[in-house]
Design goal:
mainly alpha
C-alpha cells in the first residue's frame, strides 16, 4: 500500500498535480502510523509536496526531519536553503565518517560537503562574497566540477559582475553540456551583456537537449527579448510556466516582458505569481512591483516594495539605489542621499548610484559634491564595456548635461559649454537635444536673468 501511494505521488508531481500529491501524501502518512517509508527520502518527498502547494513552514519541517535521518541528503538541504534556512531545527553540517578517494588522496566526505553546504546556505541568504570565499576552500578538482561552477556563476550574478558570471556559467556548461540547471540565469547574464549570438546558440542547444525543460524556454524567451520581440518572448515564458507552474524565475521574466510592453496589469499579475511561488524572490518585488509603482507615480508604494526586497537581500547595492530613487521622488532628499551613499559603500563601481547621488546633491544645492560624484562616474564608465555597467548605467548624454548645469551653477561657463556640447555629440533624443540647446543658449545668463526670461 505504501509503495503504491509513493508511486502515485511521484506520478502526480511529474504531471504538476500538486494538490493531488499533497492529498496522497497525507494518506501515506496516515497509512504509516510508525514512520514514513524510505526514511529521509520519504520526508524529502513530503517536503517537496508541501513546498509546491505553498506550505513553506511544513516543507521546512519535513526537510529538517529528512536531514536528521539522512545528513548527506543534498537535495533536502538545497531546498531548505531555498526556503531561507531560518527555521527551528536547522541541521548542523554533517560529520561524515566515510572516506572517499579523491585522486590518490583519501579525503573525508564531510570535508568535501562542508564548504559546499556553507556556500549554499550563504548564497540563500544573498551573501555572495562570503559564499565565494567558502567555495574557495574546496580542492581544485572540486572547483572545476559543473555543480560548483554553477554556484560560482550564481554568486557573480548576485554581485552584478556579469562578465565573470558568464565565464563561470560557460565553464559549467562545458563540464556538463546536458545539464540545463542554472542556464536560465546564464541566458539573463548574456542578455545583460548584449551577446545575442551566444544567447541564440545557447537557446538552440537547450531546446535540442530537452524541449520539456522550462529552463530551455526561459532561455529562448530571453533570446527573443534581446531582439525586442516582446510578444514572442511572452509566449515562450508562458510555455515555461506551463511546464513548471511553480518556477518563480519564469514568472518574473514574464513580468519583465509585460512591463517592457507597458502592460502593467499583466506584469503585476506575473510578479505576484512569482512571489506566491517564492516569497523570497526579491526580483519580483524590486524590479517588478516596485518599478510598476514608480511608473504609476506611486513612490511611497514603490519604496515599500524596494525596502521589502532590501530586507531579503540587504547586501544589494542596486536595491539601495532603488530605495534612494523612490525617496528622491518623494522629496525626502536627506534620506535618499543616505541610501545612495550606502549603495556606493556596498559597490563603489555602481554608476547608477553615483548618478542618482549627484542629482540629489544638486537638489540640495551642493553642486561641488555633485560634480565630484559625476567625475567619479565618468571614471567608471569607460572601463565598463563589461555588462554590469551597460545594464544599469544612465545614458551618457544625461551625465554630461547634468555636469554642464553644475559647472554653470559654479560660475564656470567654459567648462559648462564643453560638457553641454559633449552631451550633444552623444546623440541624445529629440526632447533632450532641445533641452541641451536651450541650456547652451542660456549658459552665460545668471539665475536671476533666467527667472526674468521665464
Amino acid at each position: 500500500m505504501e509503495e503504491y501511494l509513493a508511486g502515485c505521488i511521484r506520478s502526480s508531481l511529474s504531471l504538476g498535480l500538486y494538490e493531488n500529491a499533497r492529498f496522497l501524501g497525507q494518506r501515506l502518512v496516515a497509512a504509516c502510523a510508525s514512520e514514513v517509508p524510505a526514511g529521509g527520502a520519504g520526508w524529502y518527498l513530503l517536503g517537496r509536496i508541501s513546498r509546491l502547494t505553498g506550505s513553506s513552514k511544513r516543507a521546512a519541517e519535513c526537510y529538517v526531519r529528512a536531514l536528521r535521518l539522512e545528513p548527506m541528503l543534498w537535495v533536502a538541504f538545497a531546498e531548505l536553503c531555498m526556503l531561507g534556512g531560518l527555521f527551528p531545527g536547522f541541521p548542523s553540517p554533517p560529520a561524515g565518517s566515510r572516506t572517499p578517494k579523491l585522486g590518490k588522496q583519501k579525503v573525508p566526505l564531510a570535508s568535501l560537503l562542508l564548504p559546499l553546504r556553507r556556500a549554499l546556505h550563504l548564497l540563500s541568504q544573498y551573501k555572495a562574497r562570503e559564499a565565494l570565499a567558502a567555495l574557495g576552500q574546496l580542492a581544485p578538482a572540486q572547483l572545476g566540477s559543473a555543480g560548483v561552477l554553477l554556484l560560482v556563476g550564481r554568486c557573480q550574478y548576485e554581485l552584478v559582475d556579469y562578465a565573470r558570471a558568464a565565464e563561470a556559467f560557460e565553464a559549467a556548461r562545458a563540464a556538463d553540456p546536458l545539464n540545463l540547471e542554472g542556464m536560465e540565469l546564464y541566458s539573463t547574464v548574456l542578455w545583460h551583456l548584449k551577446r545575442d549570438v551566444e544567447l541564440a546558440h545557447l537557446a538552440q542547444h537547450a531546446l535540442a537537449v530537452d524541449r520539456m525543460a522550462p529552463e530551455a524556454w526561459c532561455i529562448a524567451g530571453n533570446c527573443f527579448s534581446l531582439q525586442r520581440e516582446h510578444e514572442s518572448a511572452v509566449r515562450l515564458f508562458q510555455r515555461a510556466l506551463q511546464l513548471a507552474p511553480h518556477m518563480a524565475y519564469a514568472a518574473t521574466l514574464l513580468g519583465h516582458e509585460h512591463l517592457a510592453g507597458e502592460d502593467l496589469a499583466a506584469a503585476a499579475t506575473a510578479y505576484q505569481h512569482a512571489l506566491r511561488c517564492d516569497p523570497r524572490h526579491y526580483n519580483a518585488l524590486s524590479y517588478g512591483l516596485g518599478q510598476i509603482a514608480l511608473k504609476q507615480e506611486k513612490p511611497a508604494e514603490a519604496l515599500g516594495h524596494f525596502q521589502a526586497a532590501a530586507r531579503i537581500n540587504p547586501g544589494s547595492s542596486v536595491l539601495r539605489c532603488c530605495c534612494g530613487a523612490a525617496l528622491r521622488k518623494m522629496n525626502h532628499l536627506a534620506e535618499a542621499l543616505r541610501q545612495l551613499k550606502c549603495a556606493i559603500a556596498i559597490d563603489g563601481r555602481n554608476p547608477l548610484a553615483r548618478y542618482e547621488a549627484a542629482g540629489v546633491l544638486a537638489a540640495l544645492e551642493r553642486p561641488q559634491e555633485a560634480l565630484a560624484e559625476l567625475t567619479a562616474l565618468q571614471a567608471i564608465v569607460p572601463r565598463g564595456p563589461s555588462a554590469a555597467f551597460l545594464a544599469i548605467v544612465p545614458r551618457e548624454p544625461s551625465v554630461a548635461f547634468l555636469m554642464g548645469r553644475l559647472h554653470k551653477r559654479l560660475g564656470q561657463p567654459d567648462a559648462a559649454l564643453r560638457c553641454l556640447h559633449a552631451a550633444l555629440d552623444l546623440r541624445p533624443g529629440a526632447a533632450d537635444r532641445a533641452a541641451i540647446k536651450a541650456a547652451i543658449d542660456k549658459v552665460c545668463m545668471d539665475e536671476d536673468e533666467e527667472e526674468e526670461e521665464l
